[in-house]
Structures are given as C-alpha cells and as structure tokens.
Amino acid sequence: MTLVGQRDAALERCASGPLVVLTGAGLSTDSGIPDYRGPGAPARMPMTYQEFVSGPAARQRYWARSHLGWSRMRRAAPNAGHHAVAALGADLVITQNVDGLHEAAGTPALVALHGRIADVVCLACRRVTARTALQQRLEDANPGWAARHADVAVRPDGDVDLDETDGFVVPACGDCGGALKPDVVFFGENVPKPRVERCYAAVEALADAGGTLLVAGSSLTVMSGLRFVRRAATRGIPVVIVNRGTTRGDELASYRIEDGTSAWLPALAAARLTAS
C-alpha cells in the first residue's frame, strides 16, 4: 500500500540499513536546470538517436542548440539535494541525469545510467573526449553565435529552444573525421548492458539485507528508471518515492512523499548520520 505524505515514516524507513538511490531531473531543478515532466513543465520532444544519425542536418540542429545550452548548464552547481545524496552512504546511487552534478558533489558508488553531457564520443572511432574541448572548437567555428541567441530558453538535456540553425558549423572528430555525439543515451538508444546489470544487482541485494530503494526527483515515465522500481517491488523491497507530482511508479511504492528533494534529502542525511 502506498502511504501518501507519510514523511516521518518514510524517513524512518530510509534512516538506517542498506539503501539504493535512484535520482531524476527533479533533483537538479534547484540548480537551475529545468526538468521534462515536473509540474508546469512545457511539453518537449528531445531528439532521438535515429534522428541524430540520420544525417548532417539533424546533427547541425542538435549541436547548434546544445552549444548554447551547454554554455549555461556547465555553470550549474550541486544543490542541497545533491550534497545530501553524497552524504547518505548509499550502496549505490543510480542517476538518470546527464548533468554531472552528482559527480561534482563527490557522490561515491555512482552509476550515470544515461552517461554524461560533459563527454563527447566519435561515432566512427569511438574515441571519447571532453566537451570543454569541443565547446571551444564550436565557439571558434561559429563566432558570435552565442551572443546572437542569448535569450533562448534552456532545456533539461543541455540544449535550447531554437529553430533557426542554418549556417551553424559542426566540427568533425579531430582523429578520424567522424561525426561527434554527446556520450549520453539518446531516446531510441539502449543503456549499456553492464550499467543495467550493476544496477539490478544492487537493487536485488537489498532483498536479503532488509534495504530500501529510494527514488528522488523522478517521474519514472521512461522504462530506463521504472524497471528498477518494478524489480524492487517483485522482490518485496520497500520503495520510497520523493517527488513533486505523480509518478509512474506510485502504485508500487511503499511510501510516496510529495516534497522537494532539496528539503527532504538533507533531512534524511541527518537522520542516517544520527542512526550510524
């Protein structure tokens, strides 16, 4: 049964014992990064992998937008929720976010399920390089682009709302001349199997250890994250969901807390410190 609003009971459930944490975009909204599906969020359709690889025009459109969005996203800093997650002592933190804020907060035992927007991969030679290096190449190839589009709105995956992208120059891989892609899992791509297996193993280990799966700031709309909630539920593992707005996993939750992660997670970190 889901106990909606049982804040104290949920804190007690998570205050001690093994813990796996699954985070989503709602965790980063207080860092200035909008989410896709939170209350009041406008409808958005991110570029799919199939569209990205369809040809140069799609990649030009993506990189023109991402060039602007990344220049803002990279200035975001971890908020109280990120720092609290880093202090929880969780067995594993699984994040669906690509913003790198868990890494910046020093979170140990972390799986970035969908990769990191701060990395770039060549689709031909598979070499991974830093996004900061590509950002400089984009600036050099497109002088004045950022200044001309300074007022466009940022999206949660590191790009912006921009329709006019003709003329934007996209550099190729410096090693082989191949097409460059952010090293993140696009819609239509599969999460690498080793990442999924590590996450499943951590969730399943909670069953015998009397642990808890905590979901923080995720609507669980996509199966990428929901599958771990489903696995926990089938193993009889308590699931605590902390999120503003309904989630796709609400019916599977033991506790459902309508609260912001920046408020609830520090309270949990303090409770676990007291219990240790």
Q: Could you say which structural class the secondary elements and strand pairing correspond to? A: alpha/beta
Got a strand count? 10
- Characterize the overall form: elongated
List the total number of helices.
10
Oligomer classification: single chain
Arithmetic mean of pLDDT: 89
User: What is the helix/strand order?
Assistant: EHEHHHEHEEEHHEHEHEEH
Strand order of the largest sheet: 1-10-9-8-2-3-4
Q: Determine the fraction of residues in helical runs and give it as a percent range.
A: 25-40%
Biggest beta-sheet profile: 7 strands, parallel
Beta-strand percentage?
15-25%
The Rg value, from CA coordinates, equals 19 Å
The span between the termini is 28 Å
Low-confidence spans: pLDDT under 50, at least 5 residues?
none
Description:
- The protein has 276 residues and is an alpha/beta fold.
- Helices cover 37% and strands 15% of the residues.
- Strands 1-10-9-8-2-3-4 form a seven-stranded parallel β-sheet, sandwiched between helices. A three-stranded antiparallel β-sheet has the order 6-5-7.
- A hairpin with a 5-residue loop joins β5 and β6.
- α4 (80-87) runs parallel beside α10.
- The longest helix has 18 residues, at 56-73.
Short description:
Helices cover about 35% and strands about 15% of the residues. It is of the alpha/beta class and about 280 residues long. A 7-stranded parallel sheet has the order 1-10-9-8-2-3-4, sandwiched between helices. It has a 3-stranded antiparallel sheet with strand order 6-5-7.
